[in-house]
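Table S2 (continued). Query chain:
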Amino acid sequence: RETAPTRAGPGGGTMFGPCRASRRGLAGRAVFLFVALSLVALVSSDADAEEGARSSASTLAARVDNGPPHRDGAPIAPPPAPVDTSEENARRGSVRPAGASAIRFSAEDELHFSPRLVQMLRRPCEAYARNVLDEPALHLQHAAVIFLRHKCRHAPPIAPGQTGHACAELANAVEIDMTHGEAAAALRQLLHERCQAEAILLTDAETQAADAARFLVKDTVRRVAEEELELRDYAGAPMSRENASKLPRLAQDREDVLLLDSKPADEARDGDDRARPRSWEEKRRDAERQRGTRVPRWGWDGPDGDDVKDAGDVEDAGEERRVELMVLTDLYRTTEGTYWRRQNGWLDARNHCAWEGVTCVSPEAEFGVLSLALPHNGLSGVLPQTLARLHRLRHLDLSGNRLRGTVSGAFGSMSRLRVLILRSNALYGKIPGELGAASSLEQLDLSENHFAGRLPSDLSRLRELRMLNVSSNGLTGELPTGVCGLQNLEVLSVAKNRLSGDLSGPAAALGFAGRRSTLRLFDASENDFSGAPPAVPPDAPELLIWDVSKNSMRGSLPKSTPPESLRIFAASDNRLTGAVPAEMFTPKLQLRRLDLSGNALNGTLPDTLMSLTQVRHINISGNGDVSGEIPHEGVVDIRVMRALMEFDASSNALTGPLPPALVGLPNLRVLDLSNNELNGTLSGDNWADATRLERLNLRGNRLRGSIPPELGMLRSLTHLDLSGNELDGPVPVALVTASTLEHMDISGNSLDWSTVGRQGPSRGASDGEL
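Corresponding output:
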């Protein structure tokens, strides 16, 4: 048969130069190899690659699989054989001088290979399912050089008239600078040849079955593909790998060279980063324009006079600059800086204070890093412990990246640090108690990671702490009372963990000794807290949110009045019993959202609830035993609830008529009173006022009378469910022809469809589901 040409590489011709191989393989083995590799949709039958790989399989296995391990278990490449550097051979095969590979791709450089790349070198068949997107281009090129060294050492002498040679390919691979795509393609071609060789050695087409080769290829690819998927999920990559491959990369140089890019920091490099970084004077002016807002400001707001004074008292500015440069460079290399979304100025040795996300004492300073902010920037890898050596650092924000590993207790030695934000990464392990020694810390956000263990009580030493967010982790144990008793604490969120115990003590600590609490937000939802529901601290004039929903608390709601500032009160999905206390609601209460759903509450709805002037969302659904009538005209004036947008009291035992004033509230969008025992009729003039009503669910009640024609005139109504009642009379034509309705169910009634003619169903008057 004719031999297929080898795959073209970046150098043209063959992989690295203008040469073509011309060896032939055995026909039977080639046919079997095509069948085996077709199991994984890899239709590639390089005949010359098969022959070359087969001829060197045993020695290459000794080099790759059985070589002496180094620190990460990767094989250490033996020094390449001397290359013939005569002028004649150099002219024929573009052979470079001997020793060039030892300078650029040494055995010491292999110490920096990732475990994934090491596994690919040891088990080349895994390369079909492994991705190399996160591998630096220089490492991929180095791995290709390792295979080419072997081919060069075992290649036959250059024959007269031969235009290419393995040693020429090696020399070219060492000298050229490959892009990431070129290096990845070259390495995959070499690993493909090696995998082919292993399959051929395991299978003799004349005497053996294909089971061994099939298992080698198919099972390996399946297993590694599953592992790759787990790695992506664990890293929580926010984009597809196809999109990630389009991100700009910096050219890579040797480890001992710092200047990877000579462009000034304010010069455009990435497509999305055309503007220079703003100075802190500009940022300060923006902050001053926003100071009229009520959003709390924590932590660090730019350099101040003390920072400038401290920088002027430094005795050895050169040494401090050297340490900062080393730490930042280590961060870049450890977290795959070439894949960052924003990397303006990084590794430009002229002034690291001008690097993207780095802020020093002044824009002109050459040392004194005060802030390092690289949120949502594509950092991937282990969080470097060396960041703790930035002893001037006030602000550290690495949120929204793909950092993994543990948080070192060394961060507790950063006595000037005010803000530490590591939200939305893949960090794990225990939260170090040593963080309690960071005495200036005001904002600590470790949410949306994989931390486990207890919340350390040593955090109670953070006397300046104003915001603590450890939500969405796997923390266990009790909530430390000392942490809740911090005098300056404004935000405390421990939601979505596995914390347990009684909340009464921590809640009482939030307002201890009768002082005025600074608390604004307390969120302990989605845990396993038990005991009675805690009382809201009454002396917390700035409290906005109190959320203890989705726990295992039992007992009755406290008969206490929360502060008037409270906007959200949520205690849903617990095991609460008893009636809703009338004392919870006062005319001056600024409550916006009330959620008591999913409990076992009983009793009647308090009149004070239906008198709230600011409330927008009320949800008391799914309790089962809340009974009595909904407070209506003559008892309260529901019209004061003009802000109400959603009222859900479904799945209870409410009785009585539907209050007309409730229906006619001008901002009402959702009204769900399904699965109750309401009676009376739907008639009334207030339906015409429900111009914003989108969802009306009254199914499963005992409503009588006819359907108001005004329902068909509501242009915002998209969902209507009146099924399972005792309605009768004609079906309004306007209701059937309403163009905005997406769902309508009026089945289970005794309606007359004759008024709609052919538009009505033909199965009977009780069928009304459209």
